[in-house]
Amino acid sequence: MYRYCAILWNPADTDASASARFLAGRLHRASADWDLVLDADGVCAFHSGAERGSCETRVLSGECGAVFGRVFRSGHELETHVAGQPLNRDESARIVSSRGMHLVQRYWGRYVAVARDTASGETFVLRDPSGALPCFVTSWRDVTIVFSDIESCVALDALSFSINWKYIAAFVPYSALQIRDTGLNEVSEVQAGERVTLVGKALEHRSLWNPVEIARGELIEDPPTAVAQVRATVSTCAHAWASLHRDIVHNLSGGLDSSIVLSCLATAPTSPRVTCLHFYSTSSNEDERRYARLAADHFEKELITCALDDVDVRLDRLARIRHTPKPWFYLYDLMHSPLEARLAQEKNATGIFSGAGGDALFLQARADLAVADYLRRRGFGPGVVGVALDAARITRSSIWPILRQGVARHLKRGTTGPLGEYVEARSLIPPAVFQAARDDDNLIHPWIRAAGEMSPGVLWHVLCLSVPPVFYDSFGGENEVERTPVLMSQPLIELCLRIPSYVWITGGRDRAIARRAFEPVLPALIVRRQQKGAIDRHNLRIFDTNEAYLREMLLDGLLVKAGLLDRTRLESYLARGASHAGFEYNDVLRHHLCTEVWLRRWSESRQRAAA
Asked: Which of 87, 160, 226, 413 is 20 to 30 A off residue 138, Cα-Cα?
């Protein structure tokens, strides 16, 4: 498991220097796995686990900083270098003098850079535009600590953390919340593409990369051009990631996105060995093994299938989650991670790949927004009827409501906040809680807040891409295998943002450009699929099997005590044999229970620390 931790301070401040050295010594003593990679005035950095996956730490020449994670030079993705080799002097100088902009413009990957400009005395932190490597910030006695894994900070036994209830009150109604605040008062998150500069004792934030600006730039409205560029860019990104591993486990759902990734792995110049893993539910309409087998056989790859056993899913195991600065959805890891880890060990795999993020990237949902986007770009004309017809085919509705709603959205100006038309009030959340979050402009992502007015399809696309992929396993230890959501790569994100929503639905098919791009190499049945598999019945059985545990955790839990969940309605959903829950059981399992578990984990840690 790759981790990094950087300690930053003003070297002219003797007290801060002493505090920094104290923390560095304590971190090194906390675990033998930590290696010191940089020790300079004002910057001290450690890493761990660099030899176990694709991540590495590259020190900037002159020891003025370091780049953690993995970077590819655009146009030279398959070039190799000695593991951990410092970046050359010229490139290091460009990174520092541009204060990170050179990295954003000439490199991509998953990385966090920390550098100190000795001329100005300023230190900056930059998180890459994909946000695929975590980056959090806390402080202690005028020392700034930048880290990927908060367990590192907990192990110091010097810092204390408290729950940020304001953040939790917003997270409960809006699980896709992505802002600088976190669930802990003492921790903030550096956003994707954001640079944070340490000036004295203050932190200055600036986005060096903004998807809204990219979506407003030079658009690709010609479908054949979009098809060719999507095919080329997906292949480039997949081949770059594949070059870092000899053996890969690929999560193959049988859907379009994971099959696209598999097609690229099969043609990777470095020819890694790929083993496909497919999880399936035995419920009717939820078993997708035939699609996974079709894709695996087509590319002549081994396929391992595994049934999701709802009886064996013990939710009380959630008590063992790792510390994180904010809640997440732990059920996937609870059900999938043990087998993924075992298979990776058996196959000697150093990476687990997936097509995660493809739905957001290729704009799978909300075809109804395309009409308003077209009107904003092209105005009223005959072309808008064709766009409305495409949207109607995808949404299986009449063309007239699509047209009417599109015109209304076009005429309605202004930016929708995070809890606007895209988020519905949930029945378990008191209306006052939902409304308070809806009215709070501080919950708007910095990208959107700085953008002003934008078309609804662009807003939806940006919102879908604003939540970074998960890097760490919720229960993982030192030997967990690295995950790579191949599609969530900066070159592909930038390309897809330049393709308008009405181009993505060309011909009345969702993700039409991605389908056409890989139609020549994928099985026709997978390209034509319009419906995605789900595990709703599987989740319902987990809900029923663990009813007693859910009642114990939630009815008198911290969320109910804080007034963030309606206890009476929740109790009716958890009534033995007489539940009124419809699809709300998914909210209970995936969101509210996971948030409650996270709260209890930190509350117990705080109580132990106080004792």
From this structure: 87
Is residue 202 in some structural domain? yes
* Dihedrals phi, psi of 547, to nearest 5 degrees: -55, -45
Residues 46 and 67 reside in one and the same domain: yes
Residue whose entry in the numeric block shows the structure tokens 């009717």: 284
Task: Give the contacts of 449 (CB within 8 A, at least 6 positions apart).
Answer: 441
Domain hosting 83: range is 3-208
**Spatial distance between the Cα atoms of 108 and 154, rounded to a whole number of angstroms:** 31
Q: How far apart are CA 136 and CA 153, in angstroms?
A: 11
Confirm if 498 and 231 have CB atoms less than 8 A apart.
no
Q: What average pLDDT score do residues 351-358 get?
A: 96
**Is residue 315 within 8 Å of residue 545, measured between CB atoms?**
no
Angle at 314 between CA 536 and CA 291, to 5 degrees: 40
- Same domain flag for 290 and 392: no
In this structure, is residue 540 part of a structural domain? no
CA nearest to 291, candidates 360, 349, 355: 355
Per-residue b or e along 214-248, where b marks 16 or more CB atoms closer than 10 Å to that residue's CB: bbeeeebeebeebbebbbebbbbbbbbbbbbbeeb
165 found inside a domain = yes
Using CA atoms, how far residue 495 sits from 214, 224, 499, in Å, is 9, 14, 7
- Percent helix / strand / coil, the chain, rounded to 5: 45, 15, 40
| Residues in CB range of 24: below 8 A, 6 or more apart | 7, 36, 44, 46
Instruction: State the Cα–Cα distance between residues 268 and 190, nearest whole angstrom.
Output: 33
> What pLDDT, in 10s, does the model give residues 152-206?
888 888 889 999 999 999 999 988 899 999 999 999 999 999 999 988 778 899 9
Q: For residue 297, give the nearest of 476, 563, 522 by alpha carbon.
A: 522
Assess whether 275 and 387 both reside in one domain: no
> Could you tell me which residues come within 8 angstroms of residue 265 by beta carbon, excluding any fewer than 6 positions away?
238, 242, 248, 250, 272, 274, 299, 353
Q: Over the stretch 279-316, which tens digit does the pLDDT of each residue have?
A: 988 766 678 899 999 999 999 999 999 988 755 678 88
